[in-house]
Amino acid sequence: MPLTQADFDAVLLTLKLASLTTVLLLLIGTPIAWWLARTGSWLKQPIGAIVALPLVLPPTVIGFYLLVSMGPHGFIGQLTQSLGLGTLTFTFSGLVIGSLFYSLPFVVQPLQNAFEAIGRAPLEAAATLRANPWDAFFTVVLPLAKPGFITAAILGFAHTVGEFGVVLMIGGNIPGKTQVASVQIYNHVETLEYAQAHWLAGGMLAFSFIVLLALYSGRRVRQGW
Amino acid sequence: MLKQLFGGQPLVGPAQAAEKLIRARFKIERPGFALDVDLCLPGRGISALFGHSGSGKTSCLRCFAGLDQAPDGYLEVNGELWQDSANGQFVAPHQRALGYVFQDANLFAHLSVRRNLEYGRKRIPAHSRRVPLEQAVELLGIGHLLQRMPDNLSGGERQRVAIARALLTSPRLLLMDEPLASLDLKRKLEVLPYLERLHEELDIPILYVSHSPDEVARLADHLVVLDEGKVQASGPLKETLLRSDLPFMFEEDAEAVVDGIVSHYEPDYRLLSIRLSGTDAVLQLTHAPLAAGKPVRVKIKARDVSLSLQQAQDTSLLNLLPARVEHWLALDNQAQMLVGLRVGDERMIARITRYSFDRLGIHAQQALWVQVKSVSLLASD
Asked: Are B167 and B7 in contact (CB under 8 A)?
């Protein structure tokens, strides 16, 4: 087997990072998406634009600002130090935080689209059937938005797996801690280990293709009702 | 006169306190829309809210449900206070014992018919469940649909499920927003008998929004006529709806709405010409410029229409149109008549004295001329 232990560790770390990020993003992204879908506030456009920023910014820009703010003199760094956590730069936790920003739009936007498509009507029906707003959200909105949640989870996971620039800026390249698959490929190429780079790169290519295939097939099935 | 007879609010004294009543007052003012209603409705039977689209019927019903909150409002249903803005009281929709049947059924797409029916039922305390599932299912004839998903139902079936779902919350007030409007005639005839059974078999007051005189005539006990967000009449059906085939035949307020297309604009005189369908006749009025070909809707009050056997010459009136008499009825005071007329494909109403009616020898299908004193353009979009 041409993959080294370091390669396996990198793949495992990538999956761990992507899973944790996806779960956290679904929790954080749902209220944001709900608010964006329902609000009439003037803040909707500015907040929507901020959420979408990672779509257009070079990952190094996000990474740079996170590096500065999580560093010993940044406001996140100050906060984590005062809590006795030290600084988050070059740690796995730091990577998770970076990934949350990096993949936020890939989770929020499908959810927002799903919530907007549901509209007000099912909620009003639920209210006239005695369901309070929380009850209605869990028994009506969540099930109806299920395709949106699936899309959001897949995109959030896959996009985090593909992360490179942010990781390099705030996580560096520490085996077992911050060395994810994409960085490991970079290492192999740097050291001219092309065969191993091929294995990892090919693996990620196959993974990405399967994810997108699953996404599009699922979409076709859902629309075919 | 009708307004004086039926629109007045009866005082509720101690002797009447137990009487079933729905008292509602809603006032909403938004740009381009105003609702200002003050109603006292019987607490049993079917009350119809009737009017053109845009008359405020649905807005009014949504205020009853609390789906919209009138900034200035009061609502009491058979002794239960649901809104009193003067004292800052507003009961949230999910805390009101009401059922709401939406125009498009609004079933939950992710739940089977059975689970749709159970959704509201299991959210009310067991001891207040007064409508057994079997009874609602039987009443609406949906027993064979229970396992189906809403997407696999016809429009009529969906609407029946929606009605049963609302009934199963054992509401103290059932609100129905044009439950038949999205159905074709065949489906309407399929659902109507079930609505009549509701009326006969259940003691739940129903507020029924409709723009169809036929539905109202068939179902309602009490009629409220809304126009431009205001109550034009409210009273027992027969006294209020003088004739079911002629909407808005209500004394002072009788009016017709006519559709036409802008055919010409004369900037010198600021004169707009509107061609009516099915005739070469045009209506003219002074107005700001509008592009030719634009569809518009005009309102003509019955009291602004007079009749003449010959085409009047040398008159200052702009609008002289050939018409044919369709039908007529005498108003309560027996001194005046409402005459239904057809101009091209459109209908108008003239209010004339009974003396003139007899003098002109008005008879069915008579060809004559209508003279329209004033025409007003309804908002065109």
From this structure: no
